[in-house]
Amino acid sequence: MNGAILLLIALAGLLTGYFFYGRRLERWFGVRDKETPAHRLRDGLDYEPAPLPVLFGHHFASIAGAGPIVGPILAASYGWLGVVLWLVLGAVFAGGVHDMGAILASVKHDGRSIGELIRRYVRPEAQKAFLLFAWVTLVLIIAAFDVIVAKTFVHAPEVATASLLFLVLAVGFGVLKARGFSLWLLTVLGILGLVGAIWLGFIFPLRLPQNIWQLLLFGYIFLAAVTPVWLLLQPRDYLNAYLLYALLLSGLLGVFFKHPAVKLPAFTGFTNELGPLFPILFVITSCGAISGFHSLVGSGTTAKQLSKERHARPVGYGGMLLESVLGILALLAVATLSLGDYQALLKTKGPIAAFANGIGEFLAVFGLSHTKGMAFAALAVSAFALTSLDTATRVARFAMEELMPWEGLDRKTRMFYATVLSVGLAAFLAFSGTWRSIWPLMGTANQLLAALALLAVFVWLKARGTNYSFVKWPAVFMFLVTATALVLLLAKNLGRHPVLGLLALLLLSFALYVAKAGFFPQTPGRSPQRTL
Fold first, then answer.
1. What DSSP designation does 300 have?
2. I want to staple 396 with a disulfide (CB 3.0 to 4.6 A). Which of 49, 58, 260, 422 is the partner?
């Protein structure tokens, strides 16, 4: 099959979903032109209204980590057909609903998190369990991504220099924007600055040991978590997003011009070394179709910056569909290989290198050398990981602030302690190597977060007395996926890896408890206050 035709079919499905199903979602969610918390509760720190292009860039750069690249490439071991179907249908009917719903539910509750919805509409005691689960998951993400980015900086020192210069650009952008400079003028200057930073990175590569990079990154994310969002996080993610747009656009054009042949089989079997197709494909494809991390970002930082409710569709729903495009591009990067070559490349170099190799092939049609094409792809992937890293830290701070009582402490003190706890535990996990022992649980934990977020949105809509079936069925499906995956993990690890087995049992018990409380409340007549 021609890769360009496969890409066109997938893009047509995603665009149809955005323009038709997305508009229905606006009606079902009750989108209105009313003042948002970003304006009403504006504090210059977390609540800060952002123009649509800026917020889209921040949100997309935050959610598009390495997941939509690594996940589809690993899932391709089952064949390309199942991955494409889940990337398109999952993003349109599950992931996009999840992301848009999390943002709007938060906006309609003063920018509070999914944990607040669970407290109001499921059970108050379930809120603490959810927040603790979300916080631990975020801390694990922070630890893992700190190590991943540090290793990237060691192996590609030019990426380290460019990334540091990106930070300087971001602060300058934020300061000038706050002083009233034109967004479009700053955008043009910022993009030129990005190009210059990449060029300087190749001339002056910065070489430091991995442990030093890890320390510096932890220091950076601490500052990013407590700094006003308009000064660093918002402009850095906005500018970085243009690097990601460039990767997507050049990769897509490369596919259309190259017309690569899809050599990977459409279907290789219902099971392989990863496990059975159901539920494993739906877990490891991860962020390209649906991801619980997105709900934490959407209800954590994005909802506090949403200037208008109608921006939720392009930011939340559109951002998810664009991430699906990235997942499809990652799939095509390896689908042009034979099954044997795919397995060999994955075994020897890993999914990120496989992605960079495929992108290098696509960009060769523009006269760019394969080596430079791979370097550009590696730079973009590191940008994905770094933006997810600092956003995850800020969201972890929000979760810890909401989790603990903090009586008698002012807001700045609470913020400081919550960040210290989050970064401190992540640093321990990273430097001790403990994160590696529990990382195999991460994919399922992330998808369990998605199921819980969908459940929270479902019970909120049910309490409003409006249509909720479009959220209920994706929630049911994701609970089935995660429960089955946890049972498999439990059976596989209880004897060989007791810690992993015990954690899987705890997560399964928690999932069943919250699902029962949400889908089958003991007192159906008990209805929390109606919301807009």
1. I
2. 422
